[in-house]
Specification:
heterodimer, A: two-stranded antiparallel ribbon, 21 helices, 1% strand, globular, B: 2 domains, 4 helices, 2 strands, DUF112_TM (chain A), Tripartite tricarboxylate transporter permease (chain A), membrane (chain A), transmembrane helix (chain A), transmembrane (chain A)
């Protein structure tokens, strides 16, 4: 009954608003679902947890889905996860099948989203039940594992690990948290900043800086060039028929499952999911020569995989408290705003919120499908919104978000600038932002788990001998490092 | 933290706040040196070809964005102090900031594009200020 009181028209209106705004963000090249969630997060202040999550989950699903519009019509991936959609989507547009390609992509997105939602509903509670039994040692090793997986899937293992540890280091700035068993002493803080940094850098201004301001600085560096418009792009042409999915059921299910699995791996983005699904479909296809020339199967693989990520990425967040990707990292902020900690106890302690999240995700997927199918011709026009109008508004919203997050602290606005510049610099020197963020979010927990384990047991060997789970985690850590080294060697051999 | 044997440690609670940061700093140092060793040749090649940042970037738009943003951040609390608890610091500073930034990003300045930039600079902050500050009572600078 409590759930029914939450599922008000307002709840569904927020899901719909979030989905539409998310589609718009996703459809504009250079703007991402992560940015949409970061910029709109302060709006959830006055909404309450469930309504706030309704808006943010709508933004997440819409943002991931919207990326297919410019990918198919302009050959520009609206979000990184749409990168493989361009390979066959754009040739279809060139062949006069733009609308057909869009609708194939939209339908595949819906299927991917629903399959991943089912996985979320089934796996997250089971994983959370299992994770409740974890001690500080297993929790520390899971964080360590998450960082190595992310680093292993980065362009360079060393740089990925470095970025993750840098994130941890910066998260330790401030006092050693008394409320979690620390001694309350400040560290790594210059004297003149002690007043501002007692609790360290706030998470959300950091995220907004990294994803909002840094993106705009990168665009500014490149001169804010306007993309090619829709003139000359033929959206209509050959009509869409559902029969195009005949013989594609295996592709749909396999690609959605790949997306969901990749989403469950912490910190791995949608681009990895769609690339993996696309290459698998091409390998299994009887007509691989058609790929890259306008094969509907390529669009199906790519779009079902990147939407498959959405539910998958929420599994580690809601069961272990570890974000599955950078967008779900920002969702942690929504929970923090409402004073709720995500982790193994979340689903058991908040069953109504959990159910509301599932319903919001389901509604977001359906609304995304309906909006994009029936309004795709109008929505496609958003790819031509001038950047000189859009980006200043985004910057203003970034400021609002940073300022309001702690009820009006100007230092948080400066934090936004500091991390915006840092994000730009990281882009220039090719630091990996995803491991950095996960390190920044999980650093304080990792510290508590590590130090308290040593205080209790007095030996480093406990990290290897505590339980079979600890041993298994060390094996997984070793495997992820070995995988990365093997991929790097293969790459080197190919370039030689 | 003191080491009783290679694996055994005793933690002093009073200094426990420095254990983890020290370990992380040491690991960061090792990783940094490893990156320098493994990528030394690439870094040296980049340095020696002389194509240093900020060469090749759009100086006007990049540094203009940073300069305008810093001025905006400094102006907001100053103006906000004149009209405390009204959010007017945000509102009154956002209008010129948005107009300046929109104009900076324009590639072809005409009467029409400047009018659109001006209208955007007026409407967007007004809407945000009204919705957040007036309707939702969210504090703004």
């Amino acid at each position: 009954m409590e759930l029914l009181s939450i599922l008000t028209p307002m709840f569904f209106a927020l899901v719909a608003a979030g989905t539409v705004i998310g589609i718009i963000f996703g459809a504009i090249p250079g703007m991402t679902a992560t940015m949409a969630v970061a910029v709109c997060l302060p709006l959830t202040y006055s909404l309450g947890l469930e309504n706030g999550l309704a808006l943010l989950l709508g933004l997440y699903v819409g943002g991931i889905s919207g990326g297919l519009v410019p990918a198919i019509l302009l050959n520009i991936p609206g979000t990184p996860s749409s990168i493989t959609t361009t390979l066959d989507g754009y040739p279809m547009t060139q062949n006069g099948e733009g609308e057909r390609a869009l609708k194939i992509g939209i339908t595949s997105s819906l299927v991917g989203g629903l399959i991943s939602l089912a996985a979320l509903y089934l796996f997250a509670p089971a994983l959370a039940d299992f994770a409740i039994k974890f001690s500080y040692i297993e929790k520390f090793l899971i964080i360590f594992f998450a960082l190595t997986v992310m680093a292993a899937l980065s362009n360079s293992l060393l740089v990925g690990i470095f970025s993750g540890f840098l994130g941890i280091f910066i998260s330790l700035i401030g006092a050693y948290d008394i409320s979690r068993g620390g001694n309350g002493e400040l560290r790594l803080v210059p004297e003149f900043l002690e007043y501002y940094l007692e609790s360290g850098f706030s998470l959300l201004p950091v995220l907004i800086g990294l994803f909002g301001l840094a993106t705009i600085l990168i665009e500014a560096e490149e001169g804010m060039k306007e993309g090619k418009g829709l003139s000359g792009v033929k959206i209509g042409g050959k009509p869409f028929k559902i029969s195009v999915f005949k013989g594609q059921i295996v592709n749909l299910i396999r690609s959605s499952s790949i997306g969901t699995f990749v989403g469950i791996l912490p910190g791995v983005g949608g681009s990895a999911a769609s690339i993996l699904a696309y290459s698998q479909e091409k390998n299994f296809s009887k007509t691989p020569e058609k790929f890259g020339k306008g094969a509907p199967a390529g669009v199906i693989a790519s779009e079902s995989a990147n939407n498959g990520l959405t539910g998958g990425a929420l599994v580690p967040l809601l069961s272990l408290g570890i974000p599955g990707d950078s967008t779900t990292a920002i969702l942690i902020g929504a929970f923090t705003l409402q004073g709720i900690q995500v982790g193994p106890l979340f689903i058991g302690n908040n069953p109504v919120t959990w159910d509301a999240m599932i319903i919001a995700m389901l509604a977001a997927n359906i609304i995304m499908f309906l909006v994009m199918v029936f309004a795709i011709r109008h929505l496609a026009k958003v790819v031509t919104v001038p950047k000189n109008i859009l980006f200043p508004i985004i910057l203003m919203m970034c400021v609002v978000g940073a300022y309001t997050i702690n009820y009006g602290v100007m230092f948080d606005v400066w934090t936004l600038l500091i991390f915006g510049l840092f994000g730009y610099l990281a882009h220039k020197i090719r630091l990996e932002i995803a491991p950095f963020i996960i390190g920044f979010i999980l650093g304080p927990s990792a510290e508590i788990y590590f130090v308290k384990s040593l205080e209790s047991f007095g030996t480093f060997s406990i990290f290897f001998t505590k339980s079979w789970i600890a041993v298994l985690l060390w094996i997984l850590i070793a495997l992820s490092i070995a995988f990365s080294i093997s991929v790097a060697r293969k790459k080197k051999r190919m370039t030689d | 933290m003191s080491f009783d044997s290679p694996f055994h440690v005793t933690i002093d609670f009073n200094t426990s706040h420095m254990i983890f940061p020290t370990i992380i700093a040491v690991i960061l140092g090792i990783l940094f040196v490893s990156i320098l060793i493994t990528r030394g040749s690439t870094i040296l090649a980049t340095v020696s070809n002389g194509n240093w940042w900020p060469a090749g970037i759009d100086h006007k738009r990049f540094f203009g964005t940073i300069a305008l943003t810093v001025i905006y951040f400094m102006a907001m609390p100053a103006v906000g102090d004149i009209f405390p608890n009204t959010g007017l610091g945000f509102y009154l500073c956002s209008i010129p900031y948005l107009f300046a930034l929109s104009t900076l990003y324009l590639h072809e300045r005409s009467r029409r594009t400047l009018m659109i930039a001006g209208a955007n600079a007026l409407i967007a902050p007004s809407l945000v200020w009204y919705i957040l500050s007036e309707l939702f009572n969210i504090s703004l600078p």
